[in-house]
Write a structure and sequence with these properties.
By secondary structure, the protein is mainly α. It has a domain of 26 residues. It is 52% helix and 0% strand. The chain is built from 2 helices and no strands. The longest helix has 22 residues.
């Protein structure tokens, strides 16, 4: 199992009046990890070692 990058309790808080399935945090974490990897690639392609918001 991969490391979870999101805080489950914060996900539940953000979902407000909705129930959150047990596997939602894992799926969200995988999406976040993908976004981070894409942002790192973009920063690298632009000759930077710092990931910035514009890389998203």
């Amino acid at each position: 199992m991969a490391e979870i990058l999101v805080v489950r309790s914060k996900v539940k808080d953000a979902a407000k009046n909705m129930n959150v399935a047990g596997d939602f945090a894992e799926a969200l974490s995988a999406k976040v990890e993908s976004l981070i990897k894409e942002a790192c690639k973009r920063a690298s392609e632009n000759g930077r070692k710092t990931v910035q918001s514009r890389d998203l």
